[in-house]
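Researcher: Please translate sequence to structure tokens.
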Amino acid sequence: MPPSSTTPPHDAAAVPRAVDWLSPLHWLALGWADLRRNPVPGLIHGVLLAAFGALLLWAARDRFWLLAGAFSGFLIVAPILATGLYRVSRACSTGRCVGMREVVSLWRSGDRRLVVFGLLLGLAGTGWVLTSAGLITLWSTVPIAKPVDFLRHVVLVRELGLFEVWLLLGALLAAPVFASSVVALPMLVDTTVPVSMAVMTSWRAVADHPIPMTLWAVTIAVLMGLGMATALLGLIVLIPLIAHASWHAYCDLTVRPTSSVLPEMA
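Model: Translation complete:
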């Protein structure tokens, strides 16, 4: 569907809100309001991604490294596949409700910036799996081949060491991925800026608000963990909630110049 000839006003979003340690709760509240106002696109995303995760879990259930790689890839790919929900939240901010047709139009647009960003995230996920495999293989005295081996010989051991280092390493590798994408992904959907500028803006937002953004990263991790702990059923609601809330985080953390904002779809 061709874009309209006029761009809706974005003056209300031109000046970002003050961000503090309570902002993540505010973003979640706004994201929940968007989900309630226009639930169909979000729930479709949630169902499809939860089903995809369940398929990965079934396919790799007895092979730990395949399972670790599959779920790392899932956590990396899920934000990319949920980018269409940023358009849903953007439309909600102008009083419009859009359906899956507009979301699909974003996927079919073949935006090379999103493709490049997705490939970069995929490389980051692959790097984590290889690093994790190297750490556990070199440190563990017992071969880790199945998920139960990881649980028994890494997670549940009494001695401090491997599991704690593994978690710390994961956090250290996840931090730059979060800093690079938390603002960049919605910005790439909302504007015409190149990937490099979006990533720089994302890093600047995190550097300017370290405590709120740390809390936001922890909040996302906890919600995703809860979703997985419910046999992935919780992801049906939590994935669109996080996506909508991430849009509002982007709006509060950046100045959106009207000259580079993409027009709404008719």
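Researcher: Any highlights?
Model: DSSP finds 13 helices and no strands in the chain.
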